[in-house]
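User: Please run a holo structure prediction.
Assistant: Happy to. Please share the sequence and the ligand.
User: Here you go; the ligand is zinc ion.
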Amino acid sequence: MTVQAFRGELLSVPRDPQLDPAAVRYDADGLLVVEQGIVVARGAYADLAPRFASVPVSHLRGLIVPGFVDAHIHYPQMDRIAAHGEQLLDWLDRHIFPAEQAFASRAHADVVADAFLNELLRNGTTSALVFPTVHAHSVDALFDAALARQMRIISGKVLMDLGPAGLADTAQSGRDETETLIARWRARGRLGYAVTPRFALTSSDAQLHVAGQLVADHPDVLMHTHLAENLREIAAVGERFADAADYLDVYDRFGLVGARSVFAHGVHLPDRSARRLAETGAGIAVCPSSNLFLGSGFFDFGQAQACGFRTGLGTDVGAGTTFSMLHTAGLAYQAAQARGVRLDPFRALWLATAGSAGLLHIADRVGGLEAGQEADFAVLDDTATPLLARRTAGASLADRLFALQILGDDRAIRQTWIMGQCAWNRT
Ligand code: GUN
Ligand code: ZN
């Protein structure tokens, strides 16, 4: 079937509603017309029905929103989610590096990649920027599994020549493997590549320099790393790079700060860093669940707004404690509250969809359910639990959306559709 239509309640926020209050697009009785996986029309059913009278229509019960875009997540960490007791640096040593060492086995990587992408789909997530491990075949495993599901996944071998035994590459092998992977995966399916130094502390100066060269040589890739997450980490970066102006400046000196740079966290950013992010077009994947779990702190939405740098939302599993971008949006509200900022539910939905898509430079393809974009969407059920049903009965759209963010999670995802095909169905 090449043309199909979906009738139901349609909601999307293709632009930041803080900058453009008209950004919220809502059709209580809407029609989404899809041809070969691409949205060709979207609007009120009454307006569009005559034009598409011959197209078969599926009725979808629930709130249809763009598929979620997770701007920062680690697939090898899914089985170490909920690891007790440590903050970032000790948590990495005690829980995470041992888990990542197991990815020396390609067979293990295949099993986890499969489970990981299924879990994304169960949670309504259709696109993601993903950390694999240092092993080149961990990228192959993820991309093979994403290709089979037609998912929009961006990833790239982790560079970490100062990593622990079994997880350390070298500046040369990191460069060679990255080049090979870029050549192998370029322009395949809906995949994208990201040059991925883990963070400043696990790469030598020589490797950070290589990462900068790779980014300069391949203008179509992203740069993906961690920034200013946890106070002990920041102190260690300050000690090693004593002459840098701040943490971001370390990356800047190696050519790693630009419009296609995605930094996870940015919980503790000096204003200089925030202004520099804005000036270069770089942005932050905000990860509130992880920041709470590791005791890192609360992202400063007020500073982000004042300085005007890009933002998106990430779960950061396994430091993040949920795959649900809906629940993560609710935690972003709570993190904003901790800093005295009121995050609007429509803006939180934007962050989880088109905001993240913008950060990942895929906003022309996904995130808004606009004509010309790929038909990736989730169908939300605001009666998924007895409490949600009580809270949302007769409520306004904003209240229903907020209740879904605060009370909802994977249980509230009725279906997930990829390029107009049902990829996951709860019942
Ligand atoms: N910083 C460096 N590596 C990691 C990681 O795996 N998770 C988080 N949250 N921060 C990091
Ligand atoms: Zn992370």
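DSSP finds 15 helices and 16 strands in the chain.
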